[in-house]
Amino acid sequence: MPSQSTHPKLTLEQQRAQHAWERCADYSKTQVNAAKGLPALIMNSGLMQVLAFCNDKGGDYEPVSRDLREWLAGRFPGLRNAGSFEAFMTALMQSDPREYQQITAEALAWLKWLRLMSAARKGAQ
Predict the structure, then answer these.
(1) pTM for the full model?
(2) Residues near 39 by beta carbon (within 8 Å), at least 6 away in sequence
(3) d(Cα 110, Cα 72) in Å, to the nearest integer?
């Protein structure tokens, strides 16, 4: 008899929310502010430009950028082995335009959850 899980399979939105919730648990107020600003930066400049900006700035941007790269690497097979910033950027540069658009859309979808979850967690403290 096959075992039945007591937990239903999570939707993609639930997975994004759960990942964002777990990653922002220890964010500082300035990291929350960094998370809030990234979607607009991506829409204005593009994903790779914003990741390069985060890497250059470091500080409060680094954990947010790292968590975003981790989420994207879990979603896209071409990014799975891109553990370092340099490898991740190289993988993005080598992705085809359609996949790059999908990666950017996924980044925005995950960041929507991150900005909401991080603000909610910080507000509750």
Answers:
(1) 0.90
(2) 108, 111, 112, 115
(3) 9
